[in-house]
């Protein structure tokens, strides 16, 4: 039996939509890759690798979100930063991190740019601004690290790396087994596949496919 023309056309639309959704998908997490770059830099300088803390990384993502997409507030004469009180009052609860287990942040790197870069490029071109940035990465005071990356509706991409001197089994302890996943954005240590598609707004693939089917139904009189 021949397949009706409208069914064939509908299948083409659905397959195309699925392909579009898969084009930006990756099999890893850019925040995890950023942690790997940081640790590679440290081991190249004969320093110890840092423990990848899921709780600290989630905190880093909340830190990014506090900028509300304002890339101009990162660095330069108009630089701003969230108040320290927000770590316990806002960031920890949003991540499911027990506030009593927060430990001092021994260093942080933050950068923002309108173009998305690979983690290695973001590290060298955005986060390594000067000698001070390298000193932060190679400090012997750190024991753990967490990274996050997120896009915004304004088209800006934020990268953040946070370091702490806490102990891996007693700092940034999660209320559950995993930190709360929040979108948009990715954070390290979450065992979460995080593609470029979730760094900013999630592509609306199925609504587009549905619209195509509706148009077909009118065209063929259904």
From TrEMBL:
Superkingdom field: Eukaryota
Range of residues in the leader sequence: 1-22
Keyword terms of this UniProt record: Signal
PANTHER family: OS08G0459300 PROTEIN
Protein's UniProt name: Uncharacterized protein
Source organism of this protein record: Salvia divinorum (Maria pastora)
């Amino acid at each position: 039996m021949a397949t009706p023309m409208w069914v064939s056309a509908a299948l083409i639309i659905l397959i195309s939509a699925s392909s579009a959704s898969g084009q930006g998908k990756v099999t890893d997490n850019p925040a995890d890759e950023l942690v790997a770059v940081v640790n590679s830099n440290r081991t190249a300088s004969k320093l110890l690798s840092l423990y990848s803390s899921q709780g600290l990384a989630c905190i880093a993502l909340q830190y990014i979100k506090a900028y509300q997409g304002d890339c101009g507030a990162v660095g330069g004469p108009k630089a701003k930063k969230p108040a320290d009180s927000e770590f316990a009052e806002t960031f920890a609860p949003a991540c499911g991190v027990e506030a009593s287990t927060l430990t001092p942040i021994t260093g942080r790197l933050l950068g923002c740019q309108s173009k998305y870069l690979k983690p290695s490029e973001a590290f060298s071109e955005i986060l390594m601004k000067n000698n001070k940035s390298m000193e932060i990465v190679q400090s012997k005071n750190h024991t753990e690290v967490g990274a996050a990356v997120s896009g915004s509706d304004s088209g800006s991409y934020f990268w953040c790396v946070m370091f702490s001197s806490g102990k891996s089994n007693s700092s940034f302890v999660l209320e559950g087994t995993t930190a709360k996943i929040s979108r948009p954005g990715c954070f390290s240590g979450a065992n979460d596949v995080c593609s470029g598609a979730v760094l900013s707004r999630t592509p609306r693939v199925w609504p587009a496919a549905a619209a195509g089917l509706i148009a077909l139904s009118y065209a063929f009189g259904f």
